[in-house]
Amino acid sequence: MSKVKKTNVMRLLEQQGIAYEEHHYFGENVDTGVDIAEKMGNDPDQQFKTLVTVGRSGAHYVYVIPVNTALDLKKAARAVSEKSIAMIKEKELLPLTGYVHGGCSPIGMKSDFKTVVNETAELYDTIIFSAGKVGVSVEMNAYELEKFIDIDFADVVKEK
């Protein structure tokens, strides 16, 4: 039985018959996605964060990258054939996606945006990412994301 109320992401996965595992973290003293991954007992290379950007063209793009990495804006722009991209302002996140900072999921956004998943996701049978609520994540096969959104895999992170 689930420890928390199902999120819309979980409902969407179940509607598509996609298997997933829930991960939860409730507590204080976390500053980063790496902190949360470690508190959940997850490998930070396998736990991903969702970032929303805007291109010079005005189009929005979503990037799903490991929590222990940073988005390389030049690589990210090349991956979507833009001259440049920038992170959106935090105050724009909720109206644009329907999600708050720290609980943004690539599944179930208000609009469909081109999404790029960092190529390291292909190294794992499953990846972990936000279930649309702070402290709640889902673990599933990255290729299953294609049932919901238009995704590509590319190297879009800065070198460690």
List keywords for this structure.
YbaK protein, 160 residues, alpha/beta, 19% helix
Structure description:
This protein has helices at residues 8-15, 33-40, 73-79, 90-97, and strands spanning 21-24, 48-55, 60-66, 85-87, 114-118, 127-133, 136-140, 151-154. The strands form two sheets. Strands 4-2-3-5-8 form a five-stranded mixed β-sheet. The chain contains four helices and eight strands; from the N terminus they run αβαββαβαββββ. A hairpin with a 2-residue loop joins strand 6 (127-133) and strand 7. 35% of the residues are buried. With 160 residues, the protein is an alpha/beta fold. It is globular. The model has no long low-confidence stretch (mean pLDDT 90). The chain has a single domain (8-154), classed as Alpha-Beta Complex (YbaK protein), CATH 3.90.960.10. Helices cover 19% and strands 27% of the residues.
CATH topology: YbaK protein
Supply the helix-strand structural class.
alpha/beta
Q: Categorize the overall geometry.
A: globular
CATH class: Alpha Beta
Order of helices and strands: HEHEEHEHEEEE
**Structural domain tally:** 1
Helix share, percent: 10-25%
Alpha carbon gap, first and last residue: 39 Å
Sheet with most strands? 5 strands, mixed
The CATH superfamily title: YbaK/aminoacyl-tRNA synthetase-associated domain
As residue ranges, the low-confidence spans are none
**SS field, number of helical segments:** 4
Strands in their spatial order, largest beta sheet: 4-2-3-5-8
Strand fraction band? 25-35%
Mean pLDDT: 90
Using the CA coordinates, give the radius of gyration.
Answer: 15 Å
Number of strands: 8
Please identify, by name, the CATH architecture: Alpha-Beta Complex
